[in-house]
């Protein structure tokens, strides 16, 4: 008789050490992947804050896509006042709202909520004089900013003045940041919707952490014409104590 074959030995099992190392290796891989997916938005936001565009960079970050914005952008860039401002070396041109990280713009009033077609049609152009001495800004105000029909809301104009006068003086303050202590606005004429306006501001006095500023919003007119003053304001801005530790929405560059 032919002897029956002996049964095959059972397959050998990995050692306890090998199984333990394999388990922890897989756990580390999946934990790392999960952490990367979860942390990516935070890393992206932090990178945007730490690597903000320069003043010059902001001039290249906006491209109009609709017909109205293209028209507004072209009108501003070809206006004699703009050409004159660009010829003056004491002024630095920028579009400050484009320094705000995209992840934060939806939560910013003037850089997100009020910016876009029908509102502030395109990101405003701003020219700042070194040392926080003066500022000029040009904007186009759409019909969705009205209080009375076809008339821009006075509260919005006050917001423009608050931001514009504040930005004007920041370069004169020790840590380049300040809070509004008071703002007085005098309305001189109704501001029609769908119009170009110029905001002009001048820092009149600085004492330590305090800066006083005067400014106005006027119509943007053709060369040789006299602009109409729409509203005027004066304000006091005070740099908070320990301002050097505050998170800044608009990073400060040496040009200021």
From TrEMBL:
Domain Thioesterase: start-end pairs: 151-218
Residues making up the signal peptide according to the UniProt record: none
SUPFAM superfamilies (UniProt xref): Thioesterase/thiol ester dehydrase-isomerase
KW Iron-sulfur (keyword) present: no
Pfam families: 4HBT (PF03061)
Annotated TM spans: 21-43
Keywords: Membrane, Transmembrane, Transmembrane helix
Name the record gives this protein: Thioesterase domain-containing protein
Organism: Monilinia vaccinii-corymbosi
